[in-house]
Amino acid sequence: MKPFRVSVTLLLFASSAMADVTFHLAHRDDRPGTSALVFPNDRRVFHVEAAPYLERGHIISAKVVPTDYGYAVEVGLSAEGEMRFNKLARENGRAYDERGVSALVSLGAIDAGIPLTLIVGPTEALPGRALWWHMDPSLPTDQARTQAEKYVRSLLGPGTNSN
């Protein structure tokens, strides 16, 4: 089964090689206890919850994958990580049916406080345990690969692998 491919472009900011990447729920409307952030792949303001929705323990692998368009990062999720992502997708599907696109909750990847990328309102469950992020196709090939490698290093930590 092919991995689920999230259609976003990742613009990576410089960060430490072993920073702790976490994924946080991001809302379009202001909510108590959230911080306003702008992600590189979506220039709108999102209000991000402080507590991570997916964290290092949910990430079991990360690797750079060549594609027809350059490079992508594949992020392998644990069973619990997949379950949490799929729960968000189901809730978004119901919210979209009831209230429209403005009700969708997104998932923001943050590295040491720096917004990396935003998965805008997922509504489909993962067919497997992998998410993909495509690097900006306008980057030269070597620069896209270098950015993907930095992103993979920032995702990896104890108990993860790059296979």
Quaternary status: single chain
**What is the gyration radius calculated from CA atoms?**
15 Å
Gross morphology is globular
CATH structural fold name: Gyrase A, domain 2
Q: Which regions have little confidence, pLDDT < 50, spanning 5+ residues? A: 1-19
- Considering DSSP H and I runs of 4 or more, what fraction of the residues is helical? 10-25%
Intertermini distance: 17 Å
Instruction: Please state roughly what percent of the residues sit in beta strands, choosing from under 5%, 5-15%, 15-25%, 25-35%, 35-45% or over 45%.
Output: 35-45%
Structural class: alpha+beta
Mean pLDDT: 83
Write out the strand line-up for the largest beta sheet, numbering strands in chain order.
3-4-2-7-8
Question: What would your notes on this structure say?
Answer:
By secondary structure, this protein is α+β, with helices and mostly antiparallel strands. It has a single domain (9-155), classed as 2-Layer Sandwich (Gyrase A, domain 2). It has helices spanning 79-99, 141-155, and strands at 9-10, 21-27, 34-39, 42-49, 59-67, 70-77, 106-111, 114-119, 130-135. The strands form two sheets. A five-stranded antiparallel sheet has the order 3-4-2-7-8, with no helix packed on it. It has a four-stranded mixed sheet with strand order 1-9-6-5. The longest helix has 21 residues, at 79-99. It is globular, with a radius of gyration of 15 Å. The chain starts with 8 loop residues before the first strand and ends in an 8-residue tail after the last helix.
